[in-house]
Each structure stands twice: as structure tokens, then as C-alpha cells.
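User: Can you help me understand a structure? I only have the sequence.
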Amino acid sequence: MQKGMHIDTERCVRAVQSKDARFDGWFFTAVVTTGIYCRPSCPVVPPKPANMRFFPSAAACQQAGFRACKRCRPDTSPGSPEWNQRADLVARAMRLIADGVVDREGVPGLAARLGYSTRQVERQLLAELGAGPLALARAQRAQAARLLIETTPLPMADVAFAAGFASIRTFNDTVREVFALSPSDLRARAPRGNPGNTTGALTLRLPFRAPLNPDNLFGHLAATAVPGVEEWRDGAYRRTLRLPYGHGVVTLTPRPDHIACRLTLGDLRDLTVAISRCRRMLDLDADPVAIDDQLRTDPLLAPLVDKAPGRRVPRTVDEAEFAVRAVLGQQVSTAAARTHAARLVTAHGEPVDDPEGGLTHLFPSPEALASVDPESLAMPRTRRTTFTTLVRRLADGDIRLGPDSDWPQTRERLLSLPGFGPWTVDVIAMRALGDPDAFLPTDLGIRRAAQELGLPSTPAALTTRAAAWRPWRAYAVQYLWATDSHPINFLPV
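Assistant: Let's start by predicting it. Here is the structure, written out as C-alpha cells:
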């Protein structure tokens, strides 16, 4: 798969004719004779090639006048892997749109975060995606509206407000245009048996491209869970969420063909942001087939991939939180890092109510941690300096970690901090920034695994060998870590 796949007509036609679900989200198929658009794996009889048109986004289909298919629901496809594997302007813009920035700050706010003019951002998005930032945000609002319509009994006026629409009329017009049904008709067609409630609790499915190996993904999150903020309970990972309009609690359960997601939100306007951040944390928009095929070209890695394909990179819902936790975890065990973090949470975290009990706080914000007395930190003096410098720079905005981060620039700024070496910077790049090519050649677990497999075990030699794994070295790290018996590699019993 590659950038701009929708322009390869022959390849797109083959994907549609074979109903290949691996291509869902990479492109969309519009049918000129019916006026609808579908995902490649749509179960209906494929149209004639002459009647197919291919678009890079659902928003582009909608802007061209096509309606979403009622069978395959293309607007709920897994997101394009492009936005999580690239760090250019378009990819950063798409990550910010998914995080709700256009709805909250408008297109000027999006452009300001990216450091470009509004015209430059619009031009580049139109050129690559066939739709500008407003159309892309509108498509996201439409998807959020359908989710609320189908899974809650909320009055339609509340749905419109929660989904981000400025007026009831715009909400009604958009739903009719995108889905060819009125909001009431859409609710009437929804499956029964999911009562929802009006307090913000939602149950939904998070789709992904198969295969997905949940062991290291949920194992890592569970093994490093900070008490009060995260927990593993009854086969599910639960955590609190700091969101733009309030806080939330999410419960994520791995299933064979989806991730079951239960969200309790203080404000329903946070719905799309919460979903986007959970998808990002679980790396659900990855293309595991393309990644594993590349890693299999190394004969020493191939057996690891074949044994348990589909490993994802466990990421985060809060980039600043992860950076702080990376510093707390420097040169200490996983248990010690959890203990340090739990103390900070108890002393400086914001209390929250968990309807199911077990979770008590949001992880402290950089602003709250910047006021911590360094002498109260039970860690070596040099690490105290590292910690206090990081939280101060995060609180001041000198270092910004988020969907809009410029990866090379952020790496340079992190490396300039006292106590930040390549390991800390790369683990933040891998799990917070989402760089799929971040690599940890100095990591003890990686060096041990390399030696056991017959790979070079010195950092320089291993880095040279790993050049063949690019741009997926962060995924190679997951396969190498999995050779160890550490709890991060296994679903808790």
C-alpha cells in the first residue's frame, strides 16, 4: 500500500472485486450509477469498473455528492494508516482534525498550530485528500452524530450539540445528505438492545485491520498501569481521560474482530476526541500486513512475525503524561516506575468519579507538576533536575507533545534537556509521538533479544542491520521485546 493509492485505478478495482478488507480506509469507492460510496470490502455485488470512482477520504466522497452505503457503513472504516506513519503537514493536520481542533478552534486555529497559513493548509489538504479542513471536520461530525443517534436515547438537539454542529438545521441537513436518511429514520433503523443512557455512557466497537495481536498491546498497558489512573479488570483495560471539555473513563476489551469500547464522558462533546485518542493509543489504524511483510524480509525476524503476527505499538492518550512517566522509568524497574507515578497521582492528580469504582484520578497536568517541590521527589538529584526541567518546559509550552508535533524538531528539543539521552527520546518518539520508525538499540531487552536471535547486539551494529526494517523499526522493537518473559508481553490472567 502506498500514498495516493486512490489514483491507482487498476489496483483499486482489484481490491473492490476481491472485497479485500485490508484496503478499508485506504481509499473509498463511489458508484456513479447509484450515487453512493462504499468501503472496498462492501458485501454487495461489485459495480462495473466503468462506474467506479475512487477517492482518498469519506469527506471527498461526500463533497462530490455521494452518500454513505447503508450496508458497509464506509464512514466507520478504520482510519488511513497514512496519518500515523507520516510527520508531514497533511498527516499532522489530519491528526489534529481527528483530535477535534477544527471544531474547537476553527481552521485558523488548525493553521496556527501547524505553523502555516490557512491558505497553505487548505491547498495541501485539497490536493491530497480532495477535501479541505472544514469538509473533513464535517465528515467527522457526521460520524459522531450517527454514533450518538444509534447508541443513545438523547434528544436530537442534544445529539447535534454533542457532535459539534452549530445549529439543528445544519445537523439535519448534513445527516440527510451524508446518509440519505433523516436523523429519526437513522435511529429507527438502529439495532435494538443497546439502551445507552443520557449521562454520557456509550458502548461502541473500534474497528481495526486484521491481524491484531493483543498480547503485547494490552499486556504493556496493564503491566505499566498507574494505580488510580489505569487498571486491568475482568479482561479489560480501563483508564481516566483528560479531554477538552471535561474528563472521561474508558474501558477497552480486546475481541477477535474489534475492540469493545465503553466510554463514560462528563461532556458528550468530547466523544470524537476520546475515540480518536483511544484508537491512537491502541495503534488501531496500522496496516499490519504491510508492516509484517517488510519485517519478514529479515530471516532472523521472520519466525517471530510468523509466530504472532499483527503486533501493534502501545501508545498513549496523553503525550505529556507519557513523557513524564518515561523520566520516572529511567533506570528503574516497571514496579518502581509505577510506584513513583502513583505517588504523584495521589498528591497532585485531579480527583474524578468512576461509576464502576477503581479509578480515582486524572494523571497530573504539567502545570500541576511544575509546582511540585523537587525535594519531595524520591529519586536521585540528577533525575529530579530532569523531571523538573521537563514539566516546566511542557507547562510553559516550550516543548509541545501532541498530534501536531514535528517529530525531528521535538526530538532535538528533548535531547537538549538535562538527563535526556537517546533511549528516553526514542521511547517518547515511539509511544507518545507515534513515530513508527523509532528504534531503541541501547535498550537492554532489545540487545538481549538480538543476541539470542543471532542479530548484532552492539547498538551501532544493530542500528545498521535494522536499516532494512525501516520505516517500521518501532514494530520490530515489539517483536524483539516479545522474546522475553516480562509481563508486558502477555495478557493478564
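Now, to help you interpret it: Residues 195-199 have pLDDT under 50 and may be disordered. Residues 89 and 116 are 9 Å apart (CA to CA). Let me know which part you'd like to focus on.
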